[in-house]
Structures are given as structure tokens and as C-alpha cells.
Design brief:
About 40% of the residues lie in helices and about 25% in strands. It has about 375 residues and is of the alpha+beta class. It has a 5-stranded mixed sheet with strand order 13-12-11-14-15, sandwiched between helices. A 4-stranded mixed sheet has the order 4-1-7-8. A 4-stranded antiparallel sheet has the order 3-2-5-6, with no helix packed on it.
Length: about 375
């Protein structure tokens, strides 16, 4: 009997020691329209996925095995349409509470990074809620883009608050989280770099900081004034294209998609450029995310211009999007005769004006 008690005591002791390394997350979400939550655990060793079911009150509890390399746990819910992130620390229970309709406002308490991010959310509550309301896909104004100016103003103010937080908290991992959330525009890497340089050197090995610095180096490969990255693609006519295809010519890489209204060739003034300038002076390569070649060919037939077009049927468009750091549509790169990027823009008028100014000198 004494031996059994001794063994039982050892088991309890071992469990108590190990439980200090377990990640324990409890939460309660109101207004969920689906009880299933998918959790993606990201670590330096790879990702794992778990599923948890909320009860009728929206409560759930999760235990994750000890993993010293666990970096972030992302919770996807409402049919994976909404999500929020948790930065757990082993042995420190995490409490989650909030309205499922407002993932940016969900409070996550437990662990230094979570607590600091909750401080930021508290300061930005009004703006975060307004941003979520304006971005709601059920809002007809949002789907029509009518809310864009107001959203831009809100995002500007959110970045200001985030910047103030980062300056006041240079030693906090939460500051790097905010940089990754609000300051990762590949067309504005100077600000990203400036904010990263404010952080304590103690954070240099933190995975988010390392990822951000890697993104900056990649963004520098498509800055105006640098040699455009190499590529090799096949257009819808079966012709292989590389930068050498456009040797001694200016050319435009126009990133687009059929479903993107702002990406239409007329909106980007690509039609005007094609019709007003000689093919010997400038050519255009459309890179479309569409993978249904039949639909693309149907669109081509209706157009009086024979476009040089690459689709994503073999994943090649995705690769070009990645190579040229394109994160939103539309986006155009103007590349000169020496293969140097002269302009990158989302504005068709700016593109045409630049092309006209350059080719006026060349063609005359």
C-alpha cells in the first residue's frame, strides 16, 4: 500500500512539474454563428492545427503540449472568416473575452505580449470598432468602396497610435507585433526600418523582428532605381517570356485580375498607352491571378487589343506576385531599356503621364 502511494505521489509530482510548461487558453466569445474554432499553432519547427468546440455560451478551453518554440496561436472562427492571434507563454494561462463580430477588439490577457497588446486595443477601441463596422462585407457601402476615404483616415490614426506605443515601448515584443500589423507596406519600407531601429537590440532574435528585416531586404529588390527581378513565364499563346524578351524596350508589368474592377485595362489607362505608342518603344505584360484560361480567352476575344497575358493556371502568376512584392491590386511596374525599375504605381494616370514624358523624348 505504501509503495502504491509512493508511486501515485511521484506521478502527481511529475504532472505538476510538466503542467508548468503547458499552454492553457480559456475563452468566451459572444455572437458566434458557428461553434467550431480552428487553431493554428505556429512554431519554428512548423505549424500544427487543432479544433475546439465552444459550448452554448461561447466558452472554450484549450491545452497545448509543451513546446519551447511556440510563437503564436491564431484562432479562426465563423467558418474561418474571422480570426485573432494569441501570443502564449508556457505556464501562464491565457484568458480570452470579446464579441466575435469584432476580432480586433477581443481582449487577450495572460503573458506580457498579450497584456501589452490589450493596452493598445484599449487606447484604440473606438477606432478599431469603427474600422470593423466600415469594413463589414455586409455593408453595401463597403462593397462599393464608398467607405474607403473614411477607412484611410481611421487607419492613419491607428498607425499614429501604434507608432506612439512603439516609441514608448521599445523593449516590448508587442511593439514588433504592431509594426508587422500596421507598417509592412513594401512601398514604404523606410518607415518600417525606422521603427525597427527604435526597438531594443534584445529583440533582434525575436522571430517577428527577424521576419520584418527579411521582408525589408526583399522589398528593396523592387524599389525604384534597382534592377528588376528576373522571371520566366509562358503567356496564353504558349510563348516563353523573360526580361530579355523586352530587350532595348520599355515595358510594363501590370498585375491584375478579372474580378478586380480597378484593375481593368481601361481604368489603368493601359489601352491608351498601347494605342498611342509604338510596340517598338514600349510593351505591356499583363499578369492575372485568374486561373480559368477559358474565361480569360473569352475576355480577350471581346477586346480589340491583343494583350500579352500570363494567367495563374500553373501558379506562375503567384510566383511573379511574390517576386515583385505585390500584395494588393492593381499594381504596375514601368521598366526601362536597361531593365531598371522607373516607376511602380497603382494609379493609371500617373503611369500614363510617366510613359508619355519618357517616350516623348525617345520617339522624337
Amino acid at each position: 500500500m505504501k509503495q502504491l502511494l509512493y508511486i501515485f505521489s511521484i506521478i502527481i509530482l511529475l504532472f505538476s512539474c510538466n503542467s508548468g510548461n503547458v499552454y492553457h487558453i480559456e475563452g468566451r466569445l459572444s455572437n458566434t454563428n458557428n461553434t467550431t474554432i480552428y487553431i493554428v499553432y505556429e512554431s519554428s519547427e512548423g505549424n500544427t492545427v487543432d479544433t475546439v468546440i465552444c459550448n452554448e455560451q461561447g466558452s472554450f478551453s484549450v491545452y497545448h503540449e509543451p513546446n519551447d518554440n511556440l510563437q503564436v496561436a491564431t484562432f479562426y472562427y465563423n467558418n474561418r472568416e474571422k480570426w485573432f492571434s494569441v501570443y502564449p507563454e508556457a505556464g501562464k494561462p491565457v484568458q480570452i473575452k470579446g464579441d466575435a463580430n469584432y476580432p480586433q477588439l477581443i481582449q487577450v490577457k495572460g503573458g506580457r505580449t498579450n497584456n501589452k497588446l490589450s493596452e493598445f486595443k484599449k487606447k484604440a477601441t473606438v477606432l478599431l470598432k469603427e474600422s470593423a463596422d466600415l469594413s463589414d462585407s455586409r455593408d453595401e457601402r463597403a462593397s462599393n468602396g464608398e467607405n474607403a476615404p473614411q477607412l484611410a483616415n481611421i487607419n492613419h490614426e491607428l498607425r499614429r497610435i501604434a507608432q506612439d506605443f512603439i516609441r514608448k515601448n521599445p523593449k516590448e515584443e508587442a511593439s514588433s507585433v504592431l509594426i508587422s500589423k500596421y507598417f509592412t507596406d513594401p512601398d514604404d519600407i523606410e518607415q518600417t526600418e525606422e521603427l525597427l531601429n527604435l526597438l531594443s537590440p534584445d529583440l533582434n532574435d525575436y522571430y517577428i523582428v527577424k521576419n520584418l528585416r527579411a521582408q525589408i531586404e526583399k522589398a528593396k529588390t523592387t524599389m525604384v532605381g534597382v534592377k528588376a527581378p528576373q522571371f520566366k513565364v509562358t503567356n496564353i499563346y504558349g510563348q516563353t517570356l523573360t526580361p530579355d524578351t523586352f530587350l532595348n524596350k520599355y515595358y510594363i508589368l501590370a498585375f491584375t485580375a478579372l474580378w478586380c474592377d480597378m484593375c481593368q485595362t481601361e481604368m489603368m489607362m493601359l489601352d491608351d498607352i498601347v494605342t498611342e505608342h509604338s510596340k517598338d518603344s514600349i510593351q505591356i505584360l499583363l499578369i492575372s491571378l485568374d486561373d480559368e484560361i477559358a474565361e480569360v480567352r473569352d475576355m480577350i476575344r471581346k477586346d480589340s487589343i491583343q494583350w500579352n497575358l500570363v494567367t495563374d493556371s500553373a501558379g506562375q502568376a503567384i510566383n511573379l506576385f511574390e517576386t515583385y512584392n505585390v500584395s494588393s491590386l492593381p499594381k504596375c511596374y514601368l521598366i526601362d531599356k536597361d531593365g531598371v525599375i522607373k516607376l511602380k504605381t497603382t494609379n493609371g494616370m500617373e503611369l500614363k503621364q510617366t510613359v508619355d514624358e519618357i517616350l516623348m523624348k525617345v520617339e522624337n
